[in-house]
Write a structure and sequence with these properties.
With 194 residues, the protein is of the alpha+beta class. It has helices spanning 51-57, 116-119, 137-145, 167-172, 177-181, and strands spanning 2-4, 6-11, 17-20, 22-28, 33-40, 47-50, 66-70, 76-88, 95-102, 109-111, 120-125, 130-135. The chain has one domain: Cathepsin D, subunit A, domain 1 (Beta Barrel), CATH 2.40.70. It has five helices and twelve strands. It has a six-stranded mixed β-barrel with strand order 4-5-10-6-9-8. Strands 1-12-11 form a three-stranded antiparallel β-sheet. It has a two-stranded antiparallel sheet with strand order 2-3. The longest helix has 9 residues, at 137-145. 25% of the residues are buried.
Length: 194
């Protein structure tokens, strides 16, 4: 599926407005779904989100693993690691995306390479102001079946999948492989029933 680049308010060195590959995605929380625009960033090793999204989704950051990222001018930014169930608006399947939450005004939603670029084939056509996104059959067939590709060592490539989850994250994680196969999102009712 092809998407148009989105014009931003930022300018290049000539003063022209920049166009960026922004993609509408849904962040799936235990009691809400947030629709955001994520910047496809092939230069980012992993996905980053502003800390405010963790707060809105009810993710308790204090129990999560942390790491400092070093930015421009050696500025250190603490981040908190977890997985966030997301869905690209035009696709039905749920992706458990490893995310580093950062308290930085320069970070909104960056969709980096880890897991996202495995789950989707992405082609940038900047000269035509479009980018293309296709679900990777190899990724989704292995992810949804629970099997592992032959080149994996038997370990899940994403160690974040086994982090301690808060009750809120546990409810968000109830998007099971079975419901993901059908493209639906299971949200428990007040008593835990569907």
């Amino acid at each position: 599926m092809k998407f148009k680049y989105t014009q931003s308010l930022a300018t290049n060195s000539k003063g022209d407005f920049l166009s960026r590959p922004l993609l509408e995605v849904e962040l799936l929380g235990s009691d809400r779904i947030i629709t955001v625009l994520g910047l496809l960033d092939s230069g980012a090793d992993m996905s980053l989100m502003n800390i405010r999204y963790a707060q809105v989704l009810g993710i308790a950051l204090d129990a999560l693993p942390t790491k400092e990222f070093v930015g421009i001018g050696n500025a250190r930014v603490p981040t908190y690691f977890t997985e966030v169930p997301i869905r690209v608006k035009q696709f039905s399947d749920v992706l458990y995306l490893p995310v580093a939450f950062a308290d930085s005004p320069s970070v909104d939603v960056l969709l980096g390479q880890e897991e996202f670029f495995d789950a989707f084939r992405i082609r940038f056509e900047k000269d035509h102001d479009v980018f293309e996104l296709q679900a990777s059959r190899a990724y989704w067939s292995h992810e949804l079946s629970g099997s592992t590709p032959p080149n994996w060592s038997g370990e899940r490539p994403n160690p974040l999948r086994h982090l301690r989850l808060t009750p809120t994250e546990q409810r968000a994680a109830q998007v099971t492989r079975d419901t993901a196969k059908g493209g639906s999102f299971h949200r428990p009712g007040p008593s835990g029933s569907a």
